[in-house]
Amino acid sequence: MNFLRFAARRLAEMAATLLGASFVIFGALYLAPGDPAAFLLSGRSASPEALKAIDDQYHLNDPFAEQYLRWLGQVLHGDFGRSITYRTDVSRLLADRLPSTLLLVAMALVLVLVLGLLLGWIGAVRGGAVDSTILVTTTVAVGTPSFVAAVLLQSLFAVRLGWFPTGGTGNGLGQMLWHLTLPAVALALYLIGMLARVTRAAMLDVLGQEHVTVARSRGVPEHRVIRRHVFRNALGTVLTTGGLIVSTLLICTVLVESAFSVGGIGQLLELSTTTKDFPTVQAISLIMVALFMTVNLVVDLLHPLVDPRVAFEPRRSAG
Q: Rounded to two decimals, what is the model's pTM?
């Protein structure tokens, strides 16, 4: 029952926060300098008739609350409006481009979890020269921005060696995986280093605790001590970085998709921002906020299950 109440409370908080985010995202149009109609025209000159047509199409003369509620109602029905640049429904644009982004983020996330946890585990357990090598490697990874990693990987493995395509997504799942390998590595590199360092520090902290010493004194095999008493207790600390990892992936995918010409929502967001395609920007921003909040919700629900010492209470951010 405690879990169900906690889950219900977190869902309610998420819904309220998402509602507030939708208000801010929609209201950003009115924070932009100048007339909204002129803003939607991307600075192009237009006749009074054209301006009136824009006003009528987007209901710009209606009260703000009425416009927001109309837009919110449409969004709840899956209608994000019509793209100004592409002259098509935003929902169709998202349906065409979202799979590429989700696959790219999923591939990067797998790399982050597997390599980050593995390197952190090995560094904490082995120590010595192995730990020092991992520390140096992860420090370099953390200090390499995603767009720099994208350029370096593309130059070496795509242009010079020709092992991977320089861009695009290809056709079919197999070609998509091949095309997205370098972008996924570029996207994951920084987070692999970060997660490895967090995992290492959390495991070293647990290794110094009394229950680990007691387990060893009782003759428990070392591999079982590490797996059950060290890694399991460190996993709660590692899990709290889940929201940060996903949010960073969503933010950096804009840069990586642009570098590799991946036709995902990251590249679409960049192009729509440049051309001031406001309905598309609104839709992508809202989807990214919803994805980020969903991941945070999952982390909040899993944390007490992974670490029984944590009560079913909302996580408090540091500071």
A: 0.79
